Amino acid sequence: MAWIALEGMRFHAKIGVHDAEQVLGSEFVIDLYVSVPPTAGVQDDLSKTINYETIYHLCKLEMSESRKLIEHALNGIVKRMKHQFQLQGMRIRVRKLNPPVGGPVAQAWVEEEFDFMKECPSCKKKFILYDQESAWARHPNLHPASREHLERRFGGCICDNCMVTYVGKI
Ligand SMILES: [Zn+2]
Predict the structure, then answer these.
(1) Which residues does the annotation mark as catalytic?
(2) Residue whose C-alpha is closest to residue 163's, from 123, 131, 113, 133
(3) Are 113 and 127 in contact (CB under 8 A)?
(4) Pick the CATH number of 2-115 from 3.90.1150.10, 3.40.50.80, 3.30.1130.10, 3.30.300.20
(5) pLDDT in tens, the chain (170 residues)
(6) Please, what's the b/e burial string for 82-121 (b: 16 or more CB within 10 A of its CB; e: otherwise)?
(7) Which residues contact 107 (CB under 8 A, 6 or more apart)?
(8) Domain residue spans of the chain
(9) How far is the CA of 156 from the centre of ligand 1 (A)?
């Protein structure tokens, strides 16, 4: 496993519970780490890896929305990242600089780490599973009766390889 990181992404955003924060905004710094397969054998091809510019753009989009809590912004970024990329895991820290808490404080931050690698209940190999619903939804041709049978047998979504074995090519 390898990590790709964008550290110190800076944004001016209207996130906070005080009126001044909503009107004037304040400074935020985001550090984002993405776990990916080992870099050995990686081709020199941007389309086959995580594009740093896209990560920055996703964060910028999310930080342009005004809201009360940095936790909410963090969750929004995680959602966008999952939608855009197939990630083994990620860690993200959102920092608010000089938070208005009644005295000098350099920064307040919230950090969360996610492991999206789950063990396939059939072959026991690890695969990326964001959540059960989206996993089943990746197989639109799966007949509801087949899904019900597989869910009963395995208790959760199986990996793409096993899906092909049980229900044929998708
Ligand atoms: Zn499997």
Answers:
(1) 96
(2) 123
(3) no
(4) 3.30.1130.10
(5) 789 999 999 999 999 999 989 999 999 999 999 998 876 666 777 666 789 999 999 999 999 999 999 999 999 999 999 989 989 999 999 999 999 999 999 999 999 999 999 999 999 999 999 887 767 777 777 888 888 888 899 988 888 888 888 877 65
(6) beebebbbbbbbbbbeebeeeeeeeeebbeeebebebebb
(7) 29, 95, 96, 97, 98, 99
(8) 2-115, 117-167
(9) 11
CA–CA separation, 109 and 152 (whole Å): 42
pTM assigned to the model:
0.85
Ligand 1 centroid to 98 CA: how many Å?
A: 48
Taking alpha carbons only, the member of 1, 2, 24, 20 closest to residue 12 is 24
Ligand 1 centroid – CA 130 distance (Å): 15
